[in-house]
Request: fold
Amino acid sequence: DAGITQSPRHKVTETGTPVTLRCHQTENHRYMYWYRQDPGHGLRLIHYSYGVKDTDKGEVSDGYSVSRSKTEDFLLTLESATSSQTSVYFCAISDTTSGETDTQYFGPGTRLTVL
Amino acid sequence: AQKITQTQPGMFVQEKEAVTLDCTYDTSDQSYGLFWYKQPSSGEMIFLIYQGSYDEQNATEGRYSLNFQKARKSANLVISASQLGDSAMYFCAMREARSGSARQLTFGSGTQLTVLP
Reply:
C-alpha cells in the first residue's frame, strides 16, 4: 500500500472557521491531489500539485486553497468553512511514469462536518 | 454531458458467481486511461485495474478483468468468482490526455455491489 496518511480523520467545525487538512506521503511522489466526495458525485478534484510550491486549481476549487512546501506534505485550507463544504476529503498521490498508466493512490480520507 | 456514466446504482450477485459492472465514457481524446477503484464500507479508495486507450488486450488483475470496447466507449469491470468481501462501491474513472499537467481523474457516480451468501 502507498504510504499516505491524512489528518485529522474526522473533524466537526462551525461555519466561518478556518480549517486545514493535511496529507502526508512517504513515497516521494511528485503529484498530489485533493478530491472531495459527495453522494451522487463520485470524487471531484479540488486542487493538485505537480511539485513543491507548484499548485493549480481543479474542478471545484472555490473556497479552498492549498500549499506544498515539502514534497511529502500537501495542505488543504478552507479559509472560512461553509456547510456546503461538509464532505469526505481524499488526498491522492501519483508519479510521472510513462503515458497514461500514472495510477493515483488514495489516502484514507477525512470526514469534515461544518455545522 | 457526463464523461463517465455508471448506470447501475446497485447490483446484487450470488457468492462465487461472476458479475459485470458497466461503465461508459465520453471523450474526444485519442489517448486516455480508464481506472476502476473499489470503496468498501470502511471508506478507503482501492485501485483495482487500469486500461490504456492504446492497449490492444483487455486488462486483467487476478479476479478482475476489464472488458474494453473502444468503439462503444465502454470499459466494464468483470469480477469472477465473487466473494463476500467484494461487497463495496465501485467507481470507474478516466484520465484524458487533455488534462495535461493536472492528470486529474474524472469519476463516475459509482455502483454499489452486494454479494449474497
